[in-house]
Design a protein that fits this description.
By secondary structure, the protein is of the alpha/beta class. Helices cover 44% and strands 20% of the residues. The chain folds into two domains: 88 residues, Orthogonal Bundle (Arc Repressor Mutant, subunit A), CATH 1.10.10; 222 residues, D-Maltodextrin-Binding Protein, domain 2 (3-Layer(aba) Sandwich), CATH 3.40.190.290. The protein has an eight-stranded mixed sheet, with helices on both faces. α2 crosses α3 and α3 packs across α4. InterPro entries: LysR-type_TF_proteobact-type (IPR058163), LysR_HTH_N (IPR000847), LysR_subst-bd (IPR005119), WH-like_DNA-bd_sf (IPR036388), WH_DNA-bd_sf (IPR036390).
């Protein structure tokens, strides 16, 4: 005899999960059109699901403000609850997927400049030695504003304390010097003096982009450190190009567009290959500013995360030795 279960009132009273998913997207983007694009559905479908959910709850979830939407008080209460639930579901699903795969996924977060100039050329060797590990790379210029639910296993950052639950390993400090191509230097021999540099085509990292490498160094600061005033730059000097993308500045330097400031840990391979050269010997050494490797303490027992951490630290070791030898007593003290 078949035994019938009593109706589960909790499940019966739950709203449609499809509608709730649409609601979360609309709340996140504050725009029904963008929510529709993110979910690969039509805007009409988003509007219909929101209306059905509001009817079911008996409350308006959004207030229309022009083309955008804002959460009402009821909408904010509902979003706080369902967002946390969705994050938990997503993380549980990812754990199950990861365990069912032959490969282990490690999430690494760093700046776009570090990813392109330091990490990218080295990753093939890591994959060759670790075929059972996949890397989920997240690049950002704002390490303090991650997407909800994103908690990387490893950060490479200038923040000594990224957030609770991470242990930090100091890596390199900043050593900064001018770089250009050998051909550009041959065509502009005046670059071998600081005054000649001041009056050259300068590629400058604007304040917004300095979070990628160093928060407070640009051409004005670098030249002032060596007692040269950028304001005395000749009126006939060529262009002074500002950009917030360090990768772009390095590419401009590589194509002979001018002189960029090179952060040693990022441009050293290009200098070693002869693609870039240092027109002057002077450099700025910031002994008190470090880049850090931050490791998620919860992953201490995860062998894949530990292997990536140790590989990163090992890859930095030659750079640290290089920096130790480059610090000559005759150099001016760091500021």
């Amino acid at each position: 005899m078949v035994k019938h279960s009593e109706p589960d009132q909790t499940l019966i009273k739950m709203p449609s999960l499809r509608a709730v998913k649409v609601f979360v997207a609309a709340a996140k983007y504050q725009n029904f059109t963008r929510a529709a694009e993110a979910l690969c559905v039509t805007q009409a479908a988003v509007s219909r699901q929101i209306r059905e959910l509001e009817t079911y709850l008996g409350a308006e979830l959004f207030a229309r403000v022009g083309r955008a939407v804002e959460l009402t008080v009821a909408g904010s209460i509902f979003f706080d609850a369902v967002q946390l639930s969705f994050v938990n579901i997503s993380q549980a699903a990812e754990r199950i997927r990861s365990n069912s795969k032959s490969k282990h996924v490690v999430t690494l977060c760093c700046s776009p400049a570090f990813a392109a100039l330091w990490l990218g050329p080295r990753l093939p060797a890591f994959f060759d030695d670790n075929p059972d590990i996949d890397i989920n790379l997240v690049t950002t210029q704002n390490f303090l504003a991650m997407e909800p639910g994103v908690r990387p296993d490893i950060y490479i950052t200038k923040l000594g304390r990224i957030q609770t639950g991470y242990s930090c390993h100091p890596l390199n400090h900043d050593v900064i010097y001018p770089v250009c191509t050998p051909q550009y230097l041959a065509e502009h021999p005046q670059l071998r003096t600081l005054e000649g540099l001041r009056d050259a085509s300068l590629l400058n990292l604007s304040p917004y982009g300095r979070s990628q490498v160093s928060e407070h160094v640009d051409w004005n600061v670098w030249l002032a450190f060596h007692d040269v005033d950028l304001k005395s730059r000749a009126s006939s000097a060529p262009h002074f190009f500002n950009a917030n993308d360090y990768n772009l500045l390095v590419q401009f330097a590589l194509t002979g567009r001018g002189v960029a400031l090179g952060w040693h840990h990022l441009v050293q391979p290009l200098v070693s290959q002869g693609l870039l050269v240092r027109p002057v010997e002077q450099q700025l050494v910031l002994k008190d500013t470090f880049h850090f490797l931050a490791f998620n303490d919860d992953k201490e027992h995860d062998s894949s995360c530990r292997r990536l951490r140790e590989w990163l630290l090992d890859e930095f070791e030659p750079l640290l030795e290089d920096l130790r030898h480059s610090l000559q007593p005759s150099q001016a003290p760091a500021r």
